[in-house]
Task: structure prediction
Amino acid sequence: MDNNTENRTPILNIAWSRFAQLDAAAEKLENPHYGIRRWIFILGVFASLFAVLTETYPDNFPAVGKVVIKVLLILSPITASVLAAFFNKFYGGGGWLTLRAGAEEIKKEIFMYRTVLKDDPRRRVWLEKRLAEIHRQVFRGLGGEMAIDNYTGAIPPYHDPNNPDSDPGFHDLGGDDYFTFRLSDQLAWHIRKVNKIQAERTRLQWFILIAGALGSVFAALGGAFSLWVAVAASVAAAFIGWTELKNLDDTLKNYSKVVIELMIIYDHWMNLEVEERTQAETFKMVKGTEKILWNQNMEYIRSMQEALADADLDEADLVDEVLQNAVKADARFKKRLRDSIVSHTDETLRDAEDTLVETFDEALGTIVEEASSELVQEELAAMAAAASQAVENIVSRASKLRSTMEAIAEDYAGVEFNAETPASELHGLLQRLPKTGEVKG
Result:
């Protein structure tokens, strides 16, 4: 059936968009998750290698070469520690597993919508509610932080228009369509994954055995070769850690079980005659397949989360301890600064206090002596005499002024001063007023 844009149901378009968004976000987190861990393992091997090279560096080689190796020896564990701390901060929680679970659950509900519920008029409302529930579950699983990009690719993702067995994603599915687009597709995918995981596990086991054998050879040779045992052990430990991180054993068992269960449903459908492929058989196939795939998805996520919890990064302890010590050192430094300032201020205040007290005591001790000296006594006597003379002069002048004013008042008691008063009278009055002796003008 053609996947025409005009035939797209809005709710299916929304569902496929949300699936693609979560799927892309999961892949975006998953790739750095393994990339960073890979570099941590590699740097651990390099640290052992550089340590041995530093110890065995020939004396007749350029000295600068040994310096470079020592620098690399120091940088290797530090860089690994920084990467480990970064990993624990942003990828240690396995957020990509939560996103993957959300994407797969949306995909499961899309196929239920297109098969079991294809004749139910309430299916649009049902799918909308399921999308809301799934997104809330993902949000809670991510700890309340859901930073994902918008999806701008093809809808649905992974659809190949040139492949007739590729699901267009929007039309309702009958039994044969579901068998082709979902059951057969997932069975083939899991068979490929089982073979790929088996090959990777075998390859890693060979690497581990070879590294262990080399360590035994180096130990048997002894002498300078005994140092290389540490390098071989580091390589073996790195491969073992990578195997545990990928959780290859549990994943292989999980996928193998899915292959068996899907193969049973596959064989049952293929064994049915055309007239036996009823709606009941179709629904039975759909529900059985989706249950197997969902249980497999949950089991995979559970086992991967356990693997993440077990694969603690001890390398991160170096950076964490350095940061903790730096914070403590900074607190001690600031406290010592405060104590130094307080101590210096207190000492300065005490010195100033002592100086002022000494000055006061000195002034208090000399003031009596200075006051009783002959010169001071003469000055005080002169000041007293001058004050007495000034008082006498003031009293004399005040008394004279009063007498003069009383005489003037008596002489002019019957005179009325107005506009018609002769100028000679006014002039005479002014002439009799007492003079202050102050310079005018």
